[in-house]
Design brief:
Elements lengths: L5 H23 L2 H29 L7 H21 L6 H18 L18 H35 L5 H5 L3 H33 L8 H22 L4 H24 L10
Helix pairs in contact: 1-2, 1-4, 2-3, 3-4, 3-5, 4-5, 5-7, 5-9, 7-8, 8-9
Length: 278
């Protein structure tokens, strides 16, 4: 066993197996292989849901407060997005499904480095506060949307480079058009930015309720504002049509790097948000 929890081990094994099926479909374009991978991933989603709600009812709180819980919920959202695109009959996003599966699996593996048995202590903050819970959940969903946008941006750069160098392959034949990929990257970035803004507003509302305005100057809050500004710059440049789609995709990936910085800040520099990870 990898962990001390048999359900979490099963989730990992089935997730890894579904990833292998998606990779096989990515190479050979086998419909039955893709269906098997999708079925395994659906079972992973159900197990994640059972794990999440079991922990929620057992601990009597929404489990998004520790590092393990946050990464687990983040991975669950990514699995949901992967399933949506895998089951979609309107577009062929096989390459996206594979890359998104890899991202979700890596996030889940990162959760292994944290103690799943750790539960937050209610002595320091009012964890039952619904406003605080919504703030965290919406923030995680915004990061998932930004992740999807970054994956689309990466696919755009990959497909564009392949077409420019005239390196034809089966992958390109099954890939969506550059215009569709670019628009998808833009739409998911808009959704992510909207969710992030909503999360910040919920956080401000919670600060007002707490009556401690020093929390507004926490490094995590400031880095989140920086993240919002970077994505706003991306949206402005996209709306102005002054930058090429290639440069916009690069800016999108650069903005996602700020998300990683935001994550590091919350772990090491934040005096307030550090409670989330302990």
């Amino acid at each position: 066993m990898i962990t001390n929890n048999w359900m979490f081990d099963i989730i990992l094994y089935l997730y890894a197996l579904s990833l292998l099926f998606f990779f096989s479909d990515f190479l050979r374009h086998d419909r039955h292989v893709k269906q098997t991978g999708t079925g395994l991933l659906a079972f992973v989603w159900l197990l994640k849901a059972a794990f999440f709600f079991t922990r929620m009812f057992a601990g009597d709180y929404v489990p998004v407060l520790t590092m393990f819980e946050t990464l687990f919920f983040f991975a669950w959202v990514l699995v949901t997005l992967t399933l949506v695109f895998s089951l979609s009959k309107l577009f062929s996003y096989d390459l996206l499904v594979f890359v998104l599966s890899c991202a979700g699996f890596m996030v889940l593996v990162l959760a292994l480095f944290n103690n799943e048995a750790t539960v937050p202590s209610g002595n320091r903050l009012p964890f039952s506060d619904k406003l605080l819970m919504f703030h965290i959940i919406v923030a995680i969903c915004s990061y998932a949307s930004f992740t999807l946008s970054a994956v689309f941006a990466g696919l755009y750069l990959f497909i564009h480079q392949r077409l420019k160098s005239k390196r034809w392959s089966v992958v390109l034949q099954r890939a969506p058009s550059l215009d569709r990929v670019e628009k998808s990257s833009f739409v998911t970035a808009v959704i992510g930015m909207s969710l992030l803004l909503l999360s910040l507003l919920l956080g401000i509302g919670w600060i007002i309720v707490m009556g401690d305005w020093t929390l507004a100057f926490d490094p995590k809050v400031l880095s989140s504002l920086l993240l919002l500004a970077v994505y706003a710059a991306y949206l402005v440049q996209r709306a102005s049509a002054k930058w090429s789609s290639w440069r916009l995709a690069q800016l999108n990936l650069g903005a996602y790097a700020v998300i990683i910085l935001n994550f590091v800040v919350s772990m090491s520099l934040s005096n307030f948000h550090s409670w989330v990870w302990r």
